[in-house]
Amino acid sequence: MRHGKKVNHLGRKAAHRKSMLANMACSLIEHKRINTTVAKAKALKQFVEPLITKSKTENNQTVEKGTHNRRIVFKNLRDKYAVTELFGSVAEKVADRPGGYTRIIKLGNRLGDNADMAMIELVDFNEIYNAGKPKKQKTTRRGRSKKAEDTAAVVEETPKVESAKAEPKVEEPKAEKKADDAQE
């Protein structure tokens, strides 16, 4: 029985497991998606999501808190280029996402040893899944939503069309007016 055992040891000692997860997290941050086994992908998801949350909160905190978050993330990743990438482009992309930064897609079994394989990727960096989806606008639960205000503004701005039976006035071309003035 495995009561209360939340950590998947992945058949490794603690130091080896931490190093492997740190290396996989650096690869995930650098390449935005990696292929691995399902068990390692699930362990990596638990490892990397709190780090992404720490990188995201740097922009909203004071300088001291941001430096502290950077040091905590560096302690886990141990790669300054991955930390820079994480606090730069990755944190910018996931700024409005409240969690769930990674996605695990099962790929089938590996040919050599029949292990369950999966692809783990950062959700906001997949252009295929996000291509058809429009960006969501934040809405509040109080009062009118932005969409209702926008449609009301559009309705007010549209010019009223006069009756369709009104005939447009026909004016003489300007060239003919000049010719008439010249003859007089």
Summarize the structure.
50% of the residues lie in helices and 11% in strands.
Please give a structural write-up.
- This protein has 184 residues and is mostly helical.
- It has a domain at 14-130: 50s Ribosomal Protein L17, Chain: A (Alpha-Beta Complex).
- It is built from 7 helices and 3 strands, in the order αβαααββααα.
- It has a 3-stranded antiparallel beta sheet.
- β2 and β3 (116-122) form a beta hairpin.
- α1 (14-31) crosses α4 (80-93), α2 (38-56) crosses α4 and α3 packs across α4 (80-93).
- The protein is extended, with a radius of gyration of 30 Å.
- The termini are far apart.
- The mean pLDDT is 82.
Strand content: 5-15%
User: How would a crystallographer describe the biggest sheet?
Assistant: 3 strands, antiparallel
Helices and strands: which structural class?
Answer: mainly alpha
> Quick one: CATH superfamily of one domain?
Ribosomal protein L17
Number of strands: 3
Mean pLDDT: 82
Strand order of the largest sheet: 1-3-2
CATH class of one domain: Alpha Beta
CATH architecture of one domain: Alpha-Beta Complex
Determine the fraction of residues in helical runs and give it as a percent range: 40-55%
- The CATH topology annotation of one domain reads as 50s Ribosomal Protein L17, Chain: A
Number of helices: 7
Q: In terms of topology, how is this protein built?
A:
Blueprint: H1 14-31, E1 33-37, H2 38-56, H3 63-77, H4 80-93, E2 102-109, E3 116-122, H5 127-130, H6 146-157, H7 174-183
Helix pairs in contact: 1-2, 1-4, 2-4, 3-4
